[in-house]
Amino acid sequence: MNSFKVLAAFLLTISGAALHAEESWHINLHTVSYHFSERQHGKQWNQENLGLGIRREFSSDLSVQAGFYRNSIDRWSTYAIGEYTPIAMGNLQTGVYAGLRTNYTKPVMLAAGALLRWQSERYSVTLRAAPKMCNQCSAFVALEFGFKL
Predict the structure, then answer these.
(1) What's the distance, CA 16 to chain centroid?
(2) N or C: which end of the chain has fewer CB within 10 A?
(3) What distance in Å separates the CA atoms of residue 60 and residue 22, rounded to the nearest whole number?
(4) Neighbours of 88 (CB within 10 A)
(5) Residue 41 to residue 39: CA distance in whole angstroms
(6) Helices (H), 103-145
(7) pLDDT for 13 beyond 90
(8) What is the dihedral of CA 82, 1, 12, 84, to 10 degrees?
């Protein structure tokens, strides 16, 4: 429960910084991932990471997102991240994300990496890439689909 409070406080802090900005809301479906290294002790990574998130877009290059999913070590995780996507060409945006995630090798850990998003008026597809961030972790790419509310 303490990790959830940390994530909620982080998301509220980020959201409060952009109260007067133009905004839109999106629901995201977390789907699958691919890990670039093998897991220790002969175990397999969970690469079916089903979950839901909600994203608040403050401008064309700034948003926050929070949600839950079944993580790579087959546990339920919550997360809160900020996204900055300053590079755009048509419907494609690219940038970085950073925030917090729960229930991996520690109760709360850093979540960070790069993202590439295709976004139309109603729908989006996001590909996230993250480096290896701990001894028991793996670099990965993950796929999510979004729908604008």
Answers:
(1) 19
(2) N
(3) 9
(4) 14
(5) 7
(6) none
(7) no
(8) 0
Maximum pairwise Cα distance, the chain = 51
Query: Whole-angstrom Cα distance, residue 47 to residue 30?
Result: 11
Q: Which pLDDT belongs to residue 8?
A: 54
Three-state secondary structure call for residue 91: coil
**What is the mean pLDDT of the segment spanning 39-64?**
93
* pLDDT score at 20: 46
Q: Of all residues in the chain, what percent carry a pLDDT higher than 90?
A: 71
Residue indicated by tokens 């990965």: 140
**Average predicted confidence (pLDDT) for the chain:** 88
87 pLDDT more than 70: yes
How many CB atoms sit inside 10 A of residue 122's CB?
10
Residue with tokens 């429960």, as numbered in its chain: 1
Place of tokens 């064309």: 60
The token pair that represents 123 in the structure block? 């729908």
